[in-house]
Amino acid sequence: MIFEVFRQERKGQAFEHAGSVVAPDTDFAEAWAREQYGRRGESVALWLVPRDAIHDVEDWADEFDLKYRRVDGYSIKARLKEARERAASRPR
Amino acid sequence: MAAVEIPRDEQAFLAYVQDGGQVEVADWMPDDYRAKLVKFIEMHGNSELMGVLPEREWILRAPTLQRKLALTAKVQDEVGHAQLIYRVVEDLGKPREQCLADLVDGKSKFHNVFHYPTKTWGDVGVIAWLVDAAAIISQKALLKCSYAPYARIMKKICWEESFHILHGRDVILALVTGTQEQFELVQEAVDRWWGPLMQFHGNPIPKEEDPMYVWRIKSQGNEEARQQFLEGYVPQIWELGLTVPDPKLRRRDDGAWEYTEPDWDELKHVVTGHGPMTEERLAFRRGFLDREQWVRDVVLAA
Amino acid sequence: MNELLLGLADDELVIGWRDSEWTGIAPMLEEDVAFSSIAQNEIGHARAVYQLLSDDADALAFDRALDDYRCAPLVELCLLDWAHAIARRWLYEVADEIRITALMGELPLAAKINREEAYHRMHAEMWHERLRDEPRFRTAVAELWPYALGVLPPEQRDALSARVGLPIVDAFERGTHTDELAPLWEEMTVVRRSAPAGAQW
Predict the structure, then answer these.
(1) Which residue blocks in chain A are alpha helix, DSSP H?
(2) pTM of the predicted model, to two decimals?
(3) Exposure pattern of C102-141 as b/e (b: 16+ CB <10 Å)?
(4) Mind listing the domains of chain C with CATH numbers?
(5) Which chains touch A (3 or more CB pairs under 8 A)?
(6) Is the ipTM of this complex over 0.90?
(7) Which residues does residue B224 pair with via DSSP β-bridges, in sequence order?
(8) Is the CB of C119 inside 8 Å of chain A's CB atoms?
(9) CATH number of the domain residue A12 falls in
(10) Phi, psi at residue B64, to the nearest 5°?
(11) Among B68, B171, B75, which Cα is nearest to B123's?
């Protein structure tokens, strides 16, 4: 079985995919992943997940360009410039 | 933002990777790219595994507990690298058992330096200091490999190799500041390893003609890598009072290094399985693979 | 106590040496990496115990005469067959646990060693589970059993017998070396002996 290994470098950080080990069961996968991904103390925790248990998601439809959801959907600069100019020319 | 579409056309794929694009295991790849990629990565895995054998002997002869531990850890890393690398190859479709069978049957290659004998503790230092340095330069040129799974494992590999260089430097410095005999151990090892080291990065094929560069599997040509090695390490060798056995070796005013042209036929001869230790080491590996088949059958079959 | 500690340290040194022989040639790459860590840990334990007994751990490890080593015969055997290597690992860990836990009261270092050995035991037990019905493994355990008994003093052997499930028999006792120690020592010290005593490496 192929086990995907996710490792956490320090408490509080996200678990990141680190690689995979081939093992017959979780006991062997654990023993081997401990060494391959932690023998230098470089991980505080590991998640071992059989590859078959992973469900891939890779496709997104973006047909209608929903700009309001993204940073590039707002053009602040031009309006800000205008607002500042108007504020400068307003009587106090 | 639309998802990145890997173009299913060799020219467009080429433009994509040359522009810095990367692909994952399930993405479409031209057949030529895939074939060259598997061969390249497999050779790397073979090299890590074969590199273990010359160093293994010295684990058993290490002269202090500290050196014993450090050398065992270094060799362990190399086995670990082989594991990472063969997993990448396996995900590309070639099972590890097949890679190992091809290796011991002489059907696949591994780097020239691992076809040579080690003779003294001086070799242990020179291998960790200079051979690993040459390897790291090649490996850093793989960090941006167009095939992303390989690029990702290179990060861990390069990180671990940095410990090896430190260890090598420490072994060498202890020897060159020890007795006269110990100093000579290092010089003699440098003299023997210099030829293979100069051949290590391969013949000076222009990078535009090197498929590995063209496909952006590696980001550097052979000559560039060799120049980087010379620039980084010849001054280190000289500052310790050691000499390099090449009377033509010198740094030009424009920063490029001149040297006696290595024997490229010899390199080809060695990597096609005719090095001084090739047969013996492959036979050693084959022996253990065969004797332990039952273990894999019992453990991995279930 | 010092004799006991020297025996413990020499056991860890020599089994660590033997286990390190597997680096690069274990049956699967993942196991190669794991086994190598175990070997390094054992050498580390040997060093820590030598440091209790002397200022110069390397001198104790390398520079004694052959007959001054106090290791048990079990660890001296060169076992480049996986069934035997794993059988020895397992038997040694079971015996070592009995020995180490008995020392926990008097030796702070024993607790540290014991914590690290927990992983060795997990590893050994994992292999034992998988191979217990494999004839090669059972034969190896039976062959090594008299040697395993020799790791412990007689008063601790009932505990070992109970855990392993084999009856007490005549042991290969500590105090006499097998003829496998001499070639190991030769190889272990060949580089060190090539320079004058006190040379730096």
Answers:
(1) 26-38, 76-89
(2) 0.93
(3) bbeeebebbeebbeebebbbebbebbbebbeebebbeebb
(4) 2-194 (1.20.1260.10)
(5) B, C
(6) yes
(7) none
(8) yes
(9) 3.10.20.520
(10) -140, 165
(11) B171
Task: Tell me if B56 and C23 make a contact (CB, 8 A cut-off).
Answer: yes
- Where does A1-92 show beta strands of DSSP type E? 2-8, 16-22, 45-50
Strand, coil or helix: C102: helix
Residues B61-77 have pLDDT tens digits of 999 999 999 999 999 99
Percent of chain A with pLDDT over 90: 68
Lowest mean pLDDT among A54-58, B49-53, B83-87, C178-182: A54-58
Q: How far is B172 from chain A (nearest CA, A)?
A: 24
CATH superfamily of B10-301: Ferritin, core subunit, four-helix bundle (1.20.1260.10)
Confidence band for A63, pLDDT divided at 50, 70 and 90: confident
User: What is the rounded CA–CA span in Å between residue C124 and residue C147?
Assistant: 17
Residues of B in contact with A60 (CB under 8 A): 3
Domains: count for chain A: 1
Q: How many CA atoms lie within 13 A of B163 on its CB side?
A: 15
- Please enumerate in sequence order all residues whose Cβ is within 8 A of that of B265, keeping only pairs 6 or more positions apart, or say none: none
